[in-house]
Design a protein that fits this description.
- By secondary structure, the chain is mostly helical.
- It has two domains: 4-121, no CATH class; 126-202, Helix Hairpins.
- It is built from nine helices and two strands.
- The protein has helices at residues 4-15, 22-31, 36-39, 44-70, 105-112, 114-119, 126-148, 158-172, 180-202, and strands at 73-76, 81-84.
- A two-stranded antiparallel ribbon has the order 1-2.
- Helix 2 (22-31) packs across helix 4, helix 7 crosses helix 9 (180-202) and helix 8 runs antiparallel to helix 9 (180-202).
- It is globular, with a radius of gyration of 19 Å.
- It starts with a helix and ends with a helix.
- Keywords: Chaperone.
- This is DnaJ domain-containing protein.
- InterPro entries: DnaJ-related_N, DnaJ_domain, J_dom_sf.
- It comes from Neptunomonas concharum.
- Residues 144-198 form the J domain.
Length: 206
Amino acid sequence: MSDPFVALILKTLQDQPQGFSEYELIKIFESHGLFADQNNLSDSDLALFQKHFLTMNALYRLQQTLWQEEQVLLSISPLSISIEKCDENTFNSNTEMFPAEISAAALRNYYLDTREFESTQAEEVQTMLRQFWARFYCIDKRLEALKRLEIDIDNPTPSIIKQQYKKQATRHHPDKGGSPEAFIAIREAYECLITLQGEAVQTGQT
């Protein structure tokens, strides 16, 4: 296959059919030397933005190809990239169109427009990178956060997250004999999980 990004995505889908995160995919691309140009940039923020953009561009290109040619749906979110099973009602006779509920057209169009990649300069990425780093940090800390809030399901709803946070915060509040360190850790776990839920909602992966 001539496109090394797409080839590696397909291999990773085969190796990890349960799904994988964008963070994991970027690390795989890095391990195969696909970001040599970005690693040579003097501005680390711009390099990070470009790695993210190239990753999403490859994902959305593959998503389009699989749907238009095979009506196989590649589900894309920061937390989980995987092949999604579709029932008969999902399919549309017009294979140019994605199922409405997962279209995320504006986001997809942004990453498929290579002019965005070429025109975005270092000074423009600061706000995006703050969000980007927050997401990456939260992905790394997700399992720890679930454990700290005593949540035993993999994808809790915001209401479950808030309920468990209130429970743990009350138990460990400094005014009730808890330590400030434990209370701060509980709040950090809450912010992490809520941030990830927000990312999932924005990309249609609830």
